[in-house]
UniProtKB/TrEMBL annotation:
Molecular function per GO: ATP binding; protein kinase activity
InterPro entries: Kinase-like_dom_sf, Prot_kinase_dom
Domain (Protein kinase) ranges: 9-77
Taxonomic lineage of the native organism: Eukaryota, Viridiplantae, Streptophyta, Embryophyta, Tracheophyta
Signal peptide boundaries: none
Originating species: Linum trigynum
Protein name: Protein kinase domain-containing protein
Length: 77
């Protein structure tokens, strides 16, 4: 997990785990709000196809309409 993320958010409990990473609940003291954070372990990416999928995921999510079951993306930096 990056130092920038640790400095900006209080990382709370793990709420999920996938092939490449971990989903955690995070708290932003500056916004006084909870967020969900997905961190990726890049060393687990086996090949270029994995890297391509990882790069495309946030781009695809930006085109999805608002929905209660779809996360909204927020910048981490």
């Amino acid at each position: 997990m990056s130092e920038t993320l640790k400095n900006k958010y209080q990382v709370c409990e793990e709420i999920g785990r996938g092939r490449f990473g971990v989903i955690s609940q995070c708290f932003s003291p500056t916004k006084n709000s909870f967020f969900t954070c997905k961190t990726i372990e890049k060393s687990l990416l086996a090949d270029q196809a994995d890297r391509d999928c990882l790069e495309k995921e946030p781009k695809v999510m930006l085109f999805l309409p608002p929905h209660p079951n779809i996360l909204e993306l927020h910048p981490s930096g």
